[in-house]
Amino acid sequence: MTLIVEDLVAGYGDARVLHGVRLTVGDGEICAILGPNGAGKTTLLRALSGMVKVRGRIALDGAELAGRPPDALARQGVAHVPEGRGTFMPLTVEENLRLGAYVRRDRASVEEDLERVHTYFPVLRTRLKQAAGSLSGGEQQMLAIGRALMLRPRLLLLDEPSLGLAPLVTRELFRIVQAVNAEERTTVVVVEQNAHLALGIAQQAHVLETGRIVLSGTAERIRADEQVAQSYLGYRV
């Protein structure tokens, strides 16, 4: 589903964080959002999922989303995996997964999607009755993404999915995100400090600084940009 963001302004109280952000993510694309800490990347995802007040336009396949609450956006197919995973620690893995489908009414399909999540994350099948808080960091991130997939999202928002994870686990998570995108045609917006990985799976990317997009283009073009290479990739072009 095509995501269109125009003149987006957002913040917290009187503090404005985003200043007129504009971007378009095509149907079934992966879009990487890069930038330094404090640039407004997390606020952008929160704006897209209805967690902060906004001005401007947010449209998903023509449906206007700006100003609507998170539960209404969830019903429109917007799933948000926040930084820090947002897992319900005392609940079991299965309870967490089923919570991801709380707005759905097609209960028979929910069982099918539970099985589908298990194919992406086989380890979760072996942990169904285990408390989510007892999982490793990588397993908790798998659970958080699996819970989001239970919504059967049209738009998947991922905030720093690699945070605190070992490189091997991170690469596997990104492989799965790429597989979900390819197989389900789910549009993905990913905020990620590991620019190498993010640009490796994305079709397009935007660099955000102090609440403004300062550079946009294909992932290949952004990777070849000397400023991005020095600031986020650790080498010179």
UniProtKB/TrEMBL annotation:
Xref: Gene3D superfamilies: P-loop containing nucleotide triphosphate hydrolases
Keyword ATP-binding recorded: yes
PROSITE patterns, per the entry: ABC_TRANSPORTER_1 (PS00211), ABC_TRANSPORTER_2 (PS50893)
Pfam families linked: ABC_tran (PF00005)
Gene Ontology BP terms: L-amino acid transport
Superkingdom of origin: Bacteria
InterPro entries linked to this entry: AAA+_ATPase, ABC_transporter-like_ATP-bd, ABC_transporter-like_CS, BCAA_Transport_ATP-bd_LivF, P-loop_NTPase
Keywords: Amino-acid transport, ATP-binding, Nucleotide-binding, Transport
Keyword NADP: no
Gene Ontology terms, MF aspect: ATP binding; ATP hydrolysis activity; branched-chain amino acid transmembrane transporter activity
Family: Belongs to the ABC transporter superfamily.
Protein name (Swiss-Prot/TrEMBL): ATP-binding cassette domain-containing protein
Species per Swiss-Prot/TrEMBL record: Nonomuraea phyllanthi
